[in-house]
Specification:
This protein is 54% helix and 10% strand. By secondary structure, the protein is mainly alpha-helical. Keywords: Ribonucleoprotein, Ribosomal protein, RNA-binding, rRNA-binding, tRNA-binding. This is Small ribosomal subunit protein uS7. InterPro entries: Ribosomal_uS7, Ribosomal_uS7_bac/org-type, Ribosomal_uS7_CS, Ribosomal_uS7_dom, Ribosomal_uS7_dom_sf. Part of the 30S ribosomal subunit. Contacts proteins S9 and S11.
């Protein structure tokens, strides 16, 4: 890289739960710079999760954090050219990349669901991910399966 790496900006914690992870999620959820709309969607989704969940010992925020950890991948495949051939090489994922991939998958597959509002879509995806089912968890499983299938090429690591 020619330029130096950009500094990590500190994130302000969200107003309701005082959690930086929530702010990071809402920043990924946001469209067209409309952060207040994104916060409303997220909080409404957590309210729906609170109503729909069947166990009383966990709060909606804990259910969301469980869903996020269930979607988080541990290994991924990276392409690498070795002597004219391209190999898919399994690699460990950095912790911050794990979190961002999990958030993007959760939001992306929530958007593809067919409930009425975005809050309902997000709530349904959070509930299904916390039970280790749903499209986002399937994406994680596929990523892990791909890495497992290409384990033979791990000696090409860079």
């Amino acid at each position: 890289m020619r330029k130096r790496q950009a500094k990590k900006r500190p994130l302000l914690p969200d107003p309701k739960f005082n959690d930086q992870l929530v702010t990071r999620f809402v920043n990924n959820l946001m469209w067209d710079g409309k952060k207040s709309v994104a916060f409303k969607v997220f909080y409404d989704a957590l309210d729906i999760v609170e109503q729909k969940k069947n166990n009383d010992e966990k709060s909606a925020l804990e259910v969301w954090k469980d869903a996020l950890s269930n979607v988080m991948p541990h290994v991924e495949v990276r392409s690498r050219r070795v002597g004219g051939a391209t190999y898919q090489i399994p690699m460990q994922i950095r912790p911050d990349r794990k979190v961002s991939m999990a958030m993007k998958w959760l939001i992306g597959y929530a958007r593809k669901r067919n409930e009425k509002s975005m809050a309902q879509k997000l709530a349904a995806e959070i509930i299904s991910a916390s039970k280790e089912e749903g499209a986002a968890v399937k994406k994680k499983m596929d990523t892990h399966r791909m890495a497992e299938a290409n384990k033979a090429f791990s000696h090409f690591r860079f």
